[in-house]
Amino acid sequence: YVSNQMRTEELAALDAAHHLHPFTNGDELNAKGARVILRAKGVTLTDSEGNDILDAMAGLWCVNIGYGREELAEVAARQIRELPYYNTFFQTTHVPAIALATKLAELAPGDLNHVFFAMGGSDANDTNIRMVRRYWAAKGKPEKQVIISRKNAYHGSTMGGASLGGMAAMHKQGGLPIPNIVHIGQPHWYAEGGEMSPEEFGLMRARELEEKIAELGEGKVAAFIAEPIQGAGGVVIPPESYWPEIQRICDAHEILLIADEVITGFGRTGNWFGSQTLNIRPHIMTIAKGLSSGYAPIGGSLVCDEVAEVLNGSGEFAHGYTYSAHPVAAAIALENLRILEEEKIVEHAGTVAGPYLAEKWAALADHPLAGEARSIGMMATLALTPDKASRAAFASDEGTIGLICRERCFANNLVMRHVGDRMIIAPPLIMQPSDIDVMIERAVRSLDETYDKVKAEGLLKAR
Ligand code: PLP
Q1: Per-residue pLDDT tens over the stretch 376-401
Q2: Cα of 124 to ligand 1 centre, how many Å?
Q3: Residue 260 CA neighbour count, 13 Å, CB half
Q4: ipTM tops 0.95
Q5: Which of 122, 125, 298 to mutate to test the pocket of ligand 1 (most atoms within 8 A of CB)?
Q6: Does domain 71-342 have CATH number 3.40.50.720?
Q7: Considering only the top CATH level, what class is 35-65+344-456?
Q8: Which of 187, 226, 269, 349 could disulfide-pair with 429, CB 3.0 to 4.6 Å?
């Protein structure tokens, strides 16, 4: 029988024998053994060897309130005793669903007053595909089917989510995207802006949306979907010119705007929603992750009054999940929102931790291996480059240097993630300046070690 009393090697061997990991090269991982995380508190994970690891990724961008909050355990236990499960299909509802939907309507910007629940972000985006097509059909425009997304976007891992996403590696596996989903360029000035100024480049990339609508015909386009700030794509903070132009284009044409706020929601950018930080007015917003701070799998689609009215007025929407509005997950999410609000954690991210991180993170740009170092709220990105001036990529296979850096971080008890040769963080919003100091100190040490290794192995070459 498996327990946390077992030795690390035994646990890792059983994991290798029976557990297929997401987004992982299985043989490679199994050869070295996965690191076993036993418990966590605040911003710190503890592994089976007794190491305390600073979690600068908040799990997978989700543990916004930090680990180990007793209140959530209590709410979960209470809800399991009272009503562990019931569905919302059969003309029934329950108090956690009502309470959470009501609270979300209060917190969400504009008239996003309605919510369709899912278990996470991928399936919420699947809902969005079906919902926008249903909406246009109900309005007598069934030919409005196409959803425009962006290259290097991440919208999940289901067939629908991965199709909306613009990850080339995901599309290659499994014959994606599904029909009627197309992708325009991303506003990634650092990697793709060439000689253009960031503002010119941002405008150019936004106008690709208008060009695509013209090419397809407005009568064919249902929606545009985008993350306010691309997360898994490498924390791509768009030039300031980008979102106002996207908003103008969406307003000028008859299409719905879906903001995928799975990462940027619930305080990540220093406001409740990234749409508020970037002044975006979506018709639909995808939510998950920080909704429950990862304590339970729950996500959903926040929907504006008009879309909800059309949906409600057009007969049965033949869509739903067994665990839509799961009462235990909903109760946990509601308690998480209470903590975020009452403890002013979103304000802390916006006015204390975020600005402190911005200052310390920006200074990383002085490191010999660093190109741009930027942050917004509590998410940040650091490009690694062999040549600051030209923003050149490394000659080695993309991701080689990033992986070295990530492994140095892990060895130094810091979880940072790499996307290609770019390092990213999204720490718990509760981080104090003293935690940020420790994080930066470990990041610098890891960068120094990466630099030494890259130099020693002759990898400090531009492509
Ligand atoms: N959308 C965005 C923007 C995400 O970052 C993610 C996950 O990282 C998803 C959707 C998918 O969410 P999930 O993994 O909960 O299905």
Answers
A1: 999 999 999 999 999 999 999 999 99
A2: 9
A3: 28
A4: yes
A5: 122
A6: no
A7: alpha beta
A8: 349
